[in-house]
Design goal:
The protein is mainly alpha-helical. The protein is 83% helix and 0% strand. It has one domain.
Length: 155
């Protein structure tokens, strides 16, 4: 499989996202920084679009067919909205960008899409904000990866 396609596909994965895509693309795929960022970014954006568009449909299906799960999730969601809605509404756009941009496990486009859906962010707005967060995450990971590669070459 071509390294560009592998990097793109790694960008779509829930665990790896752009973080794994850039790292793999530069270290194993021999892609340049710009190529790894490009393919990883667009793979992650594709995942964002799919999740933002299909999450409401999947959630509705689950609510109709799994009543116990629906009750449990409704309680969790209500508690989350109550606890965090003031903070989120105050910094809505910025908080969504930062959540996605922080290159740590548990943050990224999938979490961003869930948070956007949970707080009722319109799909087009959510996709734009999450994509911006993905770009910033890519820049951060690119810097870290370039630093690690430079450090490894110094030995």
């Amino acid at each position: 499989m071509p390294p560009e396609l592998t990097t793109f596909l790694l960008g779509t994965t829930p665990v790896g996202e752009i973080r794994a895509a850039i790292l793999w693309g530069m270290t194993f795929g021999n892609l340049s920084s710009a190529e790894a960022l490009f393919y990883g970014f667009w793979g992650n954006v594709l995942a964002t679009v799919l999740v933002v568009l299909f999450l409401p449909k999947v959630a509705e299906f689950a609510r109709q067919h799994f009543h116990l799960l629906d009750r449990i999730l409704q309680k969790i969601f209500a508690k989350t909205r109550k606890k965090h809605s003031k903070k989120f509404l105050r910094f809505a756009e910025l908080s969504l960008i930062i959540l996605v941009a922080i290159p740590l496990p548990g943050s990224g486009c999938y979490t961003g899409a869930l948070v956007a859906w949970l707080f009722g962010v319109k799909p087009k707005t959510a996709i734009a904000l999450i994509s911006l967060g993905i770009f910033f995450a890519g820049i951060i990971v690119l810097g870290l990866t370039n630093g690690m590669i430079a450090f490894a070459k110094s030995f």
